[in-house]
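#struct-pred
JK: can someone run the complex with coenzyme A? inputs below
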Amino acid sequence: MTIRPETSLDCDAIRSVICEAFHQSDEADLVEALRSARVLEISLVAKEDNSIVGHIALSKLKSPANSLALAPVCVVENQQGRGIGSSLIQTAVAEARSRGFSMIFVLGDPDYYSRFGFSTELAEGFPCEYSGSFFMALPIGKEHLEPTSVIYPKAFGGM
Ligand SMILES: CC(C)(COP(=O)(O)OP(=O)(O)OC[C@H]1O[C@@H](n2cnc3c(N)ncnc32)[C@H](O)[C@@H]1OP(=O)(O)O)[C@@H](O)C(=O)NCCC(=O)NCCS
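RT: done, structure tokens with the ligand placed:
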């Protein structure tokens, strides 16, 4: 299994993988809207036997500055449970850190994301329309971020 940044040739395969994993097209539409809006900061694909089997997207938040939203991440059903999702998340977090970002926010299952260091407690100081028990934050920079509103890119409005 290899993980690499998306290329323009991957867009159709990424859409198929997302639709298959989520059993709907909303998340694929989101990725395409983020790409069109040029806020898709990190978009990685996982390849197995020359096919794309997983994808992760991190997009630039409107606020706080220098922060990212992780969404969506997925792996096709017949490849789940093999560590591909974990590798995608770990690789994306490392890439975000190397690009100098300060914080990553995610809305998801704390049982899953806590294993990568995401914390609901850390997100509590950051008011957001998605605030609640599924809203988590992962600090990845050296700077301390003052609590401030988390504002997602407009593309998330359709979710
Ligand atoms: C969530 C997802 C990306 C994980 O990918 P994966 O390659 O199967 O994950 P890994 O193999 O790295 O990890 C598997 C572990 O995650 C756990 N896990 C998977 N989905 C989970 C969820 N929604 N909540 C809690 N734990 C979950 C599995 O139980 C397994 O636990 P174990 O290591 O204790 O056995 C994948 O299951 C998927 O695409 N799901 C459908 C789309 C989705 O819900 N995406 C996340 C929301 S944006």
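RT: quick notes.
Residues 21-22, 71-75, 80-86, 108-109, 111-112 surround coenzyme A (CB under 6 Å).
Strands lie at 2-5, 40-48, 51-60, 67-75, 103-107, 135-139.
JK: thanks, will look after standup
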